[in-house]
Every structure is written in C-alpha cells, then in structure tokens.
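User: Predict structure, ligand arginine.
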Amino acid sequence: MDHPPKGEIMASKLWGSRFTGNLSQLAEKFTYSISYDSKLALYDCVASIAHAEMLGSQGIIHKKDASAIVRGLNQLINDIEAGRFQHDPAAEDIHSDIQSRLKKLIGKPADCLHTARSRNDQVVTDVRLYCLNHLENIQALLDGMQIAIVKFADKNADVIIPAYTHLQSAQVVLLAHQMLAYVEMLERDKGRLEDAARRTSMNTLGACALSGTTLQTDREFVTKRLGLLSTAANSMDAVSDRDFLVEIVSAIAITGMHLSRICEDLIIWVTSEFDFISLDDAFCTGSSIMPHKKNPDVLELVRGTSARFPGRLMELLVLMKGLPLTYNRDMQMDKPALFDCVDTIEDMLALMAELFGGITVKKDVLAARVTAEHFFSVDILDYLVRKGATYRDAHDTVGVMVKECLDRGKKIADLPVEQLKKYSSLFEADVKYLLNPEVSIKGKKSFGSTNPLMVRAQINIWKKRLK
Ligand code: ARG
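Assistant: Predicted complex:
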C-alpha cells in the first residue's frame, strides 16, 4: 500500500472540517484505498459528469459551474485515457483525488460537484460502471476462447479419441465433440455474466448517504446519461447492496473452474503416458535438473490460479454477511477482491485462447489408441437390444463375453460366430463390424451425440454464432 506523506492531511479530506486532530499515520495507512481504487478514476469522472449535468439542468447549481465541471472532468478523462493520470498517493481514495484535481483545474466551481450525493452512492455507482465495462471485456474474451476452440475442433474434425469416465477409458468420441463440450461450458459462463450485468446496470447515484436528498434532483436523467437499465428504487438498498459483485465473482469463479478442468484434460493429454497432444514451446517450461522435461506449467498455473476465485467469493460473502444497513466502511474491501478476480480472469482467458492455437494433435498415436474392443461394448449391447434382447440381458451377455475374452487373452474379432452364439443366439457375423472406432461414432443416432454429422452441424452452428 502506498503511504501518504505527512501534513496537509485534514485540508485534503472531504470531511476535514469536523475534525481538529490528524488521523494517525498507521490509521491512514490502514484505511486509505487510493492504492487500489485508482482503477475507478475513469468511472468516477464519467459518473460525475452525468451528475453535474443533472445538477445544472435542474438549476441546483449554476449552468456555467456545471459546464466548468464537465470541462474539467473531460480533461481528466483525456489524461486517464492517454495514460497520463497518476493517482496521488496522499489522497484518501480516488473520489477525493478526482475532486481535488478538479479543484486545481477549474477552481471554485469544483466545490459544487458533491451537491446531492455522497461517497456512499458515488463509490457503488463507480464500481457498477467498472463492472459493466469489464463484463463486456470478459464476454469478448470468452468469445475469443470459444472461437479458438472451435477453430481447433474444425481443424481436427476427423480425429477420434478415447473418452473417459472415472478416468477409465470408456468409449470413443470425436476430439471435436469434447472441444464443443468446452464451448458449451463457456457459453453458459457468458449467460451468467449477462444475467449479472442486467442487475448491475442500475443507477445508484442520487441515493446520497442513505435517505435521498431534499434537493430537486432528477435521477432518471443520470440513469439515461450513464446508459443504465434502471434507477435504484430504494436509497438504502442502493448504498448497501453489493449482491452484483457477489454474482459477478461467483460467475467468474465458475468460469475459473471450467478453465481449470480444461487445463486438467490437456495436462493429462500431454503426459508421455497419454501422449495425445503436444503443446507449443511457447506454453511450456523445462526442468532445472531433468534435461528431457517439457512441462505444461502454463496449464498448471491456470489450474492453480483458478483457486483464487472461490477464495475471493468467500471473502465477499463473509465481508457482507454481518453488515447492518446501510453503508459500512468494511465495504471498501469489496474492491481488492473484485479487481483481482476481473484482472485474473481476463488474463487467463486471453492466454487460453492463444494456447489452443499451439496444440498439435498426435493423430497416429490416437489412431492406435481407439481400437481396443472394450470401447465398443455399449455398441454391441445396443446391437442386441435392436435384435430384441432386453437391456438387462444384453448387458449380462456382453459383460460375460468381455470378461471371458479378457481372462483368456482373446479378441471378440477373432471368435468364430458359433462361439459368439454361445453368449447369445442373437449374434450374427455382422456384429464384428461394430469393432471399429469410425463405425462406433457414425452409429450414434441421438441428438447431441458424437455422430460426425451432428458434430459437423454443431461446429457450423458455433462458427456462425461466434462470427
Ligand atoms: N473508499 C470508500 C469505499 O471504497 C468510499 C466511501 C467512503 N464513504 C464513507 N462514508 N467513508 O467504500
């Protein structure tokens, strides 16, 4: 945490006049939020412009003062956008910092800006604007990762892989089918963020400290000016609600869990034991002692870093659960948690999109891994059901047959038809066609299955949707 220099403290405070003594230096260090809430600078200016325009148009402050404020704030916005803005480490928070800069820029009219508002409604409005902006970023990054995965699926559309339950090899599927499972996960993530954005898009400015104001403000004006969907209908709820943050961080935590699972699959696939894929050197590191090693550290760190989100989510829930209405200073601590989650998920999504471009599929290895007969046991079971067996009988038949083959080191493909008929009279020679990975996937009929035509259709749907 930056530490504000001694002196000139009370004069710079938005609340200094009530006080004669200075805040203890340790207390300052502990309570100042400027080191992290400077991220809100842009949103603070944007919200203040809408507020000043409203004050001017309602005749609460002089029009020329409102214009001066807007001009000054636009100047600050230019600085922020050009990267020229450096927060003042001596300021208590970004609201105080912007206020005192404005005063330096335009003089006395700056003193009118805080009319009919308080930092309680100001801070939550800033945070809402920050969230809406970053929710858009995260949505775009999720799109980007989906696009990268669909591209990868499309490029490897004919590759068949073993799929797992209990991490035991189960059935064969198209690699693209598994990739599109990831795309579905990320689509739900977008839905959750979109939903959270609807509730975030509410104007809380004008609630003032907690009860509203005796001045004739126009809250709808500010809502429209900020492009928000609604106006908070209860001033007490407006300044004390942080549900939207809990929702956003919760949605981010779910996305993080998804990224972690995707990484886990890829980590397993790059092991020499599985050897399904290789990763571009750009996403791996070596070992300081074992010269042969190429480790998937990036994947591991995405998996590891995603542990932070549920931690931050718990932090927010615990932060809020004991707070009486309305504003409490505890709520300042919502920001480190929020900013950390937003920054981290944005980095992770951009990285993962890039990483999918660096995966090479080991087609020869995979072709040899999808021929084992156990992959087709369910297809043989379905075959018997089509021929009239009950599901239970068919399951028993195939179970016994597979066990005996395994015990005797035999393959179903090598058993003569007469021997197959000992397991079930329904078996004909054609059952042996089923012992083939391509036949297995092509034979799938149900919607949403790994049938290549259906997977192709899904790839095309996603390509169109994500354009
Ligand atoms: N830095 C504070 C926060 O982040 C701003 C609001 C301060 N309000 C107050 N009444 N002390 O929540």
